[in-house]
Design brief:
single chain, 393 residues, alpha+beta, Alpha-Beta Plaits, 2 domains, five-stranded mixed beta sheet, 13 helices, 7 strands
Amino acid sequence: MSQTTEATELPGALLRERYRLLARQIPTLYLIVVVCTLPVIGLILTRGGGVSMAAAPAVMVAIVVARMIHWRRARVDAMSVETMRREMARTGVIGPAIGFVHASVCIAGGLSLDIDAKAITLVTVWMCTIACSFCLSTLPRTAYAVVFASGAPLCATFLYMGDPLLMLAGGLVVALACLVIFVIKQHHDALAENILTRALAEQRHELASRRTEEVVRLANSDDLTRLPNRRSFMTALAERAQRPSGRFAVALLDLDGFKPINDVYGHGAGDAVLIEIGRRLEALMAGRGLAARFGGDEFCLLIEGDEDQALAVARLARAAIGEPCALSADVAVRVDCCVGVAAHDGRTSGADLMERADATLYWCKNGGRGAVALHSALHHDLTARRAGSSRAA
């Protein structure tokens, strides 16, 4: 199988983790190549090989340093998975090519030297090959290719020299190459299993978190309008009442003329009207507070600001609700609402504030459609009488 297909077969999580490891290891790989090549250049220059023989290894060092700088500048976190695939596929080609060229030029330069220098050159090439192959263990096929690409010139040199002992050394190189490949495969398999296990655990955790978030959302939002429900609104109101900063108010809205829509056009049409009203109130309250649906045709607003600001928002809410709601291309309906507003005085609890708004709404509905009123002493007395009637009942 070709080196370029290795990256394309990887699942996203495994590929990303492999690339992170590779980005840390590749600069080390190139540093190893530089460290192993410089002594060979030194031997060529000091043992009579000449500048011309040292030129090729020197050019090799320059290429390797350029590649090392490229990988040091890589920004892994900013890369897409596709970019990582391309870089890894490119490494699958460049790695073995550099391994073959490096081994060839170093061996070619060392062949003209004395026997001791030759031995040092061959050992250095093989040590470099082993070290580099382990640096590429996250891409096992690339690592195998590096072993073969670098080991082939080495074994060919042993055979070319014709000495039985050197031929035996070539056989040892082949045996060691097989052992290195086996160790790299074992390391990679363990790494892949660890990465996939961790990725699976993260996916399960993410799925559990999403399910928890969905359960919380369903528990605190209205199924139809997606606005916060009564429970969520009362929690927000209680928290707001405990914060001393700034004035705020609540407004209860009860729709007028909604029941006939259900009777004439059906509950589907009624639901469409409620959804549209919820959308309008949510848009109106953006930056002003919170809109919620209490159930049926009743909505509630938590309004940031003083009494005048609360009344102004309540009137805007009534105007928004009064706009036509299109049920189809040629059918539109209108509803109105009454709004009871109660401003927080710095001492009232959230529950008491809701009672005041409810009493004010009750007073508004008795006065006719479309009324908007702020809680006053009159409404306070009405609240007290309603509470007394409830206790007596």
